[in-house]
UniProtKB/TrEMBL annotation:
<dbReference type="Pfam" id="PF07831">
    <property type="entry name" value="PYNP_C"/>
</dbReference>
<dbReference type="Pfam" id="PF02885">
    <property type="entry name" value="Glycos_trans_3N"/>
</dbReference>
<keyword id="KW-0328">Glycosyltransferase</keyword>
<dbReference type="InterPro" id="IPR036320">
    <property type="entry name" value="Glycosyl_Trfase_fam3_N_dom_sf"/>
</dbReference>
<dbReference type="InterPro" id="IPR017872">
    <property type="entry name" value="Pyrmidine_PPase_CS"/>
</dbReference>
<dbReference type="InterPro" id="IPR000053">
    <property type="entry name" value="Thymidine/pyrmidine_PPase"/>
</dbReference>
<keyword id="KW-0808">Transferase</keyword>
<comment type="function">
    <text>Catalyzes phosphorolysis of the pyrimidine nucleosides uridine, thymidine and 2'-deoxyuridine with the formation of the corresponding pyrimidine base and ribose-1-phosphate.</text>
</comment>
<dbReference type="InterPro" id="IPR013102">
    <property type="entry name" value="PYNP_C"/>
</dbReference>
<dbReference type="Pfam" id="PF00591">
    <property type="entry name" value="Glycos_transf_3"/>
</dbReference>
<comment type="subunit">
    <text>Homodimer.</text>
</comment>
<dbReference type="GO" id="GO:0016154">
    <property type="term" value="F:pyrimidine-nucleoside phosphorylase activity"/>
</dbReference>
<dbReference type="InterPro" id="IPR018090">
    <property type="entry name" value="Pyrmidine_PPas_bac/euk"/>
</dbReference>
<dbReference type="InterPro" id="IPR036566">
    <property type="entry name" value="PYNP-like_C_sf"/>
</dbReference>
<dbReference type="InterPro" id="IPR000312">
    <property type="entry name" value="Glycosyl_Trfase_fam3"/>
</dbReference>
<comment type="similarity">
    <text>Belongs to the thymidine/pyrimidine-nucleoside phosphorylase family.</text>
</comment>
<dbReference type="InterPro" id="IPR035902">
    <property type="entry name" value="Nuc_phospho_transferase"/>
</dbReference>
């Protein structure tokens, strides 16, 4: 078998066999296929696509390129959740204690952020002492005892995906639906959960800019899960403006606490309750969505959700007092108010521009090994549809840097103010199951 023939076959729009896909991934791993040929095949896939079987096979080939976590030592139906990434997306911090409070085990493997999307591990490490570098024994013990634990990715999961993504990143082949879907699902399947809830973001702050693209990605990933005997549901949620009011690691922990206390923003509360409800349905705690949604809403109102979050912090060596006193979280030295020069209504907020501004303030990473400032971020004071008077504060920048001009311009330009209000945004666009 020659990789040349595989490239030619896909270039001409033909279907690749399981053996050819496995040969390609094995060649990536052992170095027998050079980067230029791998890049050529990726470009052929970009233009000619993969069908459902090919996409599922590529997913499993990447899963089998490294370790696969065996969670059989954890009792019950293990449920995982994944977001395709957005600005102000602190949903994992909310749904983990919610699902655990309903008795569904959540064994969450999470990563760090790169670019303007923050990672769940980064956010939790804003809490003093919080430890995500757990041994397998501690991780399993936490889930069995408390129904929840979160750890950083330390195992050798899907190394083929890492190699392919590095090539896609420099060959303009990132935005290919089958390549995105197989990349995401390979990591989720290798993480060992029985069921997966996907939060597919759509809008200016998401990778998928149109609803049609987001739905196609969601359908592709659900099909992969189905073909590999993993119960999978995808929630297509809005990211045309930042989620909630806070962007940045400590800021987002603070806002997650507000949601769990029952004082959270409407958009992120609805998205979190929707995702947590589907997690608990897949995990067998409830037979249908509305029952789960009502129960979890009650968990928040009773204070049990916040108590469960305190427990998560405690079992992972963090300071649970932050749940009652968020001022204990890291605080930035400078707070710069951005004022409106117009009067009218917030017509739109470009979420990506807000994310870039937060990164420039120190909240994100330009390169993988960059350090981050947990206290840096942005508070959104006016959301889409809200009335704005001249000189009203539309957002506040938080930073320890002495030069914030570039971030200020990016944040200021993110807001579009018009004389008439925009129609209300939908928080949930579609459910694929």
């Amino acid at each position: 078998m020659r990789v040349y023939d595989i490239i030619l076959k896909k270039r001409n729009g033909h279907e690749l066999s399981d053996e050819e896909i496995n040969f390609f991934i094995n060649g990536i791993m052992d170095g027998s296929i050079p980067d230029y040929q791998a890049s050529a095949l990726l470009m052929a896939i970009y233009f000619k696509g993969l069908n459902k079987r090919e996409t599922a096979q590529l997913t499993m080939a990447m899963v089998n390129s490294g370790d696969v976590l065996d969670l059989s030592g954890i009792a019950g139906i293990k449920v995982d959740k994944h977001s395709t990434g957005g600005v102000g997306d602190k949903i994992s911090l909310i749904v983990i204690p919610l699902a655990a409070a309903a008795g569904v085990p959540v064994a969450k493997i999470s990563g760090r952020g790169l670019g303007h999307t923050g990672g769940t591990v980064d956010k939790l490490e804003a809490i003093s002492g919080f430890n995500t570098e757990l041994s397998k024994e501690t991780f399993f013990d936490n889930v069995n005892k408390y129904k929840m634990s979160i750890a950083g990715q330390t195992a050798n999961l899907t190394p083929a995906d890492k190699k392919l993504y590095a090539l896609r990143d420099v060959t303009a082949t990132v935005d290919s639906i089958p390549l995105i879907a197989s990349s995401i699902m390979s990591k989720k399947i290798a993480s060992g959960a029985d069921c997966i809830v996907l939060d597919v973001k759509v809008g200016s702050g998401a990778f998928m800019k149109s609803i049609d693209e987001a739905v196609l990605l969601a359908e592709t990933m659900v099909e992969i899960g189905k073909s590999l005997n993993k119960k999978t549901i995808a929630v297509v949620s809005d990211m045309s403006q930042p989620l909630g009011h806070e962007v940045g690691n400590a800021n987002e922990v603070k806002e997650a606490i507000e949601v769990l206390r029952g004082d959270g923003a409407e958009d992120e509360t609805e998205v979190a309750l929707t995702i947590a409800s589907y997690m608990t349905v897949l995990g067998g705690a409830f037979s249908e969505f509305n029952e789960a949604y009502g129960y979890l809403k009650g968990i928040i109102e009773s204070g049990k959700a916040l108590d469960k979050f305190k427990q998560l912090i405690s079992i992972q060596s963090g300071n649970p007092e932050v749940a009652d006193n968020p001022e204990l979280l890291p605080q930035a030295k400078h707070h710069i108010e951005i004022k409106s020069s117009q009067e009218g209504f917030v017509y739109s907020i470009d979420a990506e521009s807000i994310g870039v501004a937060a990164m420039l303030l120190g909240a994100g990473r330009r390169k993988k090994n960059d350090s981050i400032d947990h206290s840096a971020g942005i508070t959104i004071k006016k959301k889409v549809g809200e009335k704005v008077n001249h000189d009203d504060t539309i957002c506040i920048l938080h930073t320890n840097l002495e030069n914030w001009d570039e971030a200020r311009v990016s944040a200021e330009n993110a807001f579009k103010i018009m004389k008439t209000a925009n129609k209300p945004l939908k928080y949930i666009h579609d459910i694929i199951q």
